[in-house]
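Typical record is below.
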Amino acid sequence: MADDLGRRATRHAVVIGGSLAGLLAARVLAEHAEKVTVVERDRLPEGPEARPGVPQGRHLHVLIAGGQRALDELLPGFMDELTALGAPKVGVPEDMVQWQNGVWYRRTPATAHFYTGPRPQLEWLVRQRVLADPRIELVEGVETIGLTGDSSRVRGVRLRERGAGADKEPRTLAADLVVDASGRSTKAADWLAGIGAEAPHEETLDTGLAYGTRFYRSPDADPDATDALGYYIVPNPGQVYGGVALPLGDGRHLVTLSGLRGDEPPTEEGAFEDYAKRLPHPVLSDWLARAEPVSPVYGFRKTANIRRRYDRPGRRPAGFLATGDALCAFNPIYGQGMAVAALSAVALRRALADPRRTPTTRTVQRALLDASRQAWDISAGADKKMPGATGDAARPGPMDKVLGWYLSRVQARAAGDPVVGTPFRAALTLTAPLSSLFAPAVARAVLFGPPAETPSGPPLRRDA
């Protein structure tokens, strides 16, 4: 790892945060540094259990195809190991009863798959694989309270132990490179100010979306009722309520209901199921009536899209990078976060190993931002159309009207036409660029073809 990130070889890299983005960044940095230290404020569980530092950990997580590919590249054989742990593989549109923009999707053969096992299970498996590397050390129960160095270069981090009886005296950990993977609530702005540097501009877009999640024992299988694995009611500007039910692989389903500010899903016993009756069709509410609740309702409110523009000019030090949600956090309803964490680690690996140029803080940070760009365009592009969206990124751009018109025609045809639906799903799962939606065959179907016929009611059986 040369210049700007250290004219000499990097001896020690520190990663702030031991979640997916931090662990995968550490995996890559171990290829270049003599030692990598992951600093984590939580005491991590020994098994696949939820922890306080991932407040969304009890909620729905899906691993879309772009993330699957990236994880297998970073940790060969990872997806086989995840499958062996029982994580369900769900094919779309074949395995889902999906309603979006007023129509039901045909359940044609799957062209994309995602995994729906619990988030703690996936994170635990990543942790086991990454920490098996002797070059990587995990320091638990310690919070980062600042940086050392100055506005030209970061030299390390200032740490303080957490918990009752801990030594509260701050200590310094020297480093040639510091990577912030501390999540959407990062304190990097304060850390940078503390060494005389400037924080990046934050782009925000907040729809006020809130959701509630509850675990259910799945109702007894009734092959005469449906062969679907899950249900998905997608909100839009004209219908703001959402609902999804997906299998966890252990006889339980996880159900999430969503609404906008002022009309959030309740967390009270019984009221959650009543809220499901606001969805535009009772299919999910009827499923809930047959399922057995096995947990409280967990609420979540921090769903704003936030992008921190480290790529823009400013007085910022060499040797400091941001990745994961500390760089770009998305509305979680789109299921992109884990995939982008993995894709960002792949981008980090390629930027550091690029034989054509010397990796600098600026070039590597741009590569990390580019890894999140498509997910941002999808999430922010959809959210800015929602009623009541706020933030500087909510303002429409000069091409938004034309692009929105085209994409509305894409969505209208994706429900019933595989010619459009296949590239649409590939773009959403981050395995193909958004430009693939403008390929000649797709554009002909979008611009000149009528919307294909779609089911008149919930498609409880796969297409024959």
